[in-house]
Amino acid sequence: MYQYDWSVISRNMDVFIEGALKTLEISAISILLAIPIGILFGLGRISKNKIVFIISSAYIEIMRGVPLLVLLIWIFYVLGQFFSLGSYWGSIAGLSLFAGAFIAEIVRSGIQGVPKGQMEAARSLGMSHTKAMVHIILPQAFRRVLPPLASQFIMLIKDSSLISVIAASELTLAAKNLVATSFRSIEVWTFVALIYFIMTFSLSLIIRYFEKRLLKGEA
Amino acid sequence: MKKWLVAVLMITMLIIAGCSNDSGGGVSTENSTIQKVLKEKKLIIGMSSGYFPFDMKNPDGDFVGYDVDFANALGEALGVKVEYKQFTFDGLIPALQTGEVDMIFAGMTITGSRALAVSFADPYFQTGQAVMVPGDDTQTKTWQELDVKGTKIAVGIGTTGALLAKDVFKNAEIMDFEDFPAAAAAMAQGQAAAVVYDEPAIAVWKLRNGDAVNQLEGLISTENLGIAIKKNDFETIQWVNSFLSSYLGSPSELASRAKWFESSEWLDEVVEE
Question: Which residues of A touch B158 (CB under 8 A)?
């Protein structure tokens, strides 16, 4: 019968912590890169320019249509034939491109969520389209966009477990190796699931707090 | 609604955790894998493809290789059907522990630490770890030359190659891949400088890919491959050992060994991954 030995957790706490920090690091860098990507393609999605619109829509549809796992493997093995990024940057590239597409949609709906009257009023005050965007529309869209953006970050932390398949050092890979040497799959995987949960849940609590404060600011 | 759901989940987890805490010991044949296999007329083998020429897949998706011939012969001796389940290498032992498979046949090296989690029958093959480098690397002659900071060594996660590499390489970085083909592909693209894996897999890869790869001379370690069985399942271990005595050296085993190790005609009939 399976004999439980929970000491494998306490004896390897440093491995878990290092893995968790790596996961957070890779997820953070990816989301920071994904935001400008998302803004770029989000604006492109609502652009009047046909070429910009097509390119942006294509990018978004492809990233939303391909499973993240397949995308990561593709970047590592297919792109890797011509342009080798390695596990670390390959993972970040995959994660940020993937999240960027979702953020693009968030940005788009954020901008389109700002009442039409705002743009009309800005234009009637003599502002150019760009000026109106930068000074009136985008700041309002920003507020709307923050909560879903933060949720994207949480999703990224969970999705980051897939990068273990292209040999990137993070929590899930560390867990796989620990199970391979200790054979304590139940203890290790339960604890790792718990760590992911603690990370994502804490973040969602923080987000909820800031969301409340943001809503207070808006009349 | 939410609180109720959380409560149900917690209770379920506690029940699962509590249920499996059985400390039954002693040499009983009630839990014997052999008995279960004979009753169900089916033997479930845990395999991990990618270790040439032991565990491979043909284009139809069936398992083929030396281990497969072996397992089929074993099933025949028992008079049961053999079913194969595919796992990544590091998932095999957990699968055996939970009873998802009856035995592991995956070119698995017998180690002391593995033997604490599962039981092994007597060795059925002897090999060792070898090193593979890209074909255009004609400089490197020994693995020690690769132990430089910044050099990446590709290995299969959970294999003795991975453990050995992590142990002997002090400066180079070790990259864990799901299986040997993935590690070899990474090396082919320059993502890694070398692969450390069981010698047969590398030898076959060299046969297949010719000058694209080089195998460094010699082995870094010697290892015995064994069939893994549920821990302390003595009746099954005894039986498998008896089977090994009857099979190893028999005409069919010799033919199998000649087919997979001494010729390469089968190379076209298997897929790389």
Answer: 176-177, 179-181
Domain limits, chain B: 31-126+224-269, 129-215
Within 10 angstroms of residue B257's Cβ, the number of other Cβ atoms is 17
Crossing angle (nearest 10°) for helices A13-45 and A171-182: 150
Burial of A7 (0-12, 13-18, 19+ CB in 10 A): exposed
Q: What is the homologous superfamily of the domain B31-126+224-269 according to CATH?
A: Periplasmic binding protein-like II (3.40.190.10)
For residue A45, what are the CA distances in angstroms to A57, A98, A144?
A: 6, 16, 18
B33-40 and B234-247 are packed helices; what angle lies between their axes, rounded to 10 degrees?
Answer: 70
| Residue B133, pLDDT above cutoff 90 | yes
Give the closest of B21, B90, B116 to A176, CB-based. B90
User: How high is the mean pLDDT of chain B?
Assistant: 88
Contact B21 A4 (CB under 8 A): yes
The domain over range B129-215 is classified in CATH as 3.30.110.30: no
Give the residue extent of every domain in chain A: 10-217
State the pLDDT confidence band at A62, using cuts at 50, 70 and 90: very high
Question: Which residues in chain A have their CB less than 8 angstroms from residue B22's CB?
Answer: 1
Mean pLDDT computed over B61-80: 93
> Fold match between B31-126+224-269 and B129-215?
yes
- Distance of alpha carbon A83 from the chain centroid: 23
Cα–Cα distance for residue pair A170/A206, rounded to 1 Å: 23
- Please state, in angstroms and rounded to a whole number, the distance separating the CA atoms of residues B154 and B163: 12
pTM for this predicted structure: 0.77
Q: Do B90 and A3 touch (CB under 8 A)?
A: no
B176 and A177 within 8 Å at the Cβ level: the answer is yes
Residues with Cβ < 8 Å from A108, sequence gap 6 or more?
A: A42, A45, A46
* Structural fold of domain A10-217: MetI-like fold (1.10.3720)
Q: Which of residues 74-113 of A touch B (CB under 8 A)?
A: 76-77, 80-81, 84, 86-87
**C-beta of residue A13 within 8 angstroms of C-beta of residue A194:** no
Residues paired with B197 in a beta bridge = B130
Question: How many angstroms separate the CA atoms of B247 and B77, rounded?
Answer: 10
Q: Tell me phi and psi for residue B54, to 5 degrees.
A: -80, -55
- Chain A residues touching residue B94 (CB < 8 angstroms): 179, 183, 185
Distance (Å) of CA B180 to CA B14, B156, B212: 39, 6, 16
- Contact call for A2 and B185, based on CB within 8 A: no
pLDDT of residue B21: 47
Under 8 Å CB pairs connecting chains A and B tally to 64
Cα-based distances in Å from B28 to A159, B8, B124, B236: 45, 37, 26, 11
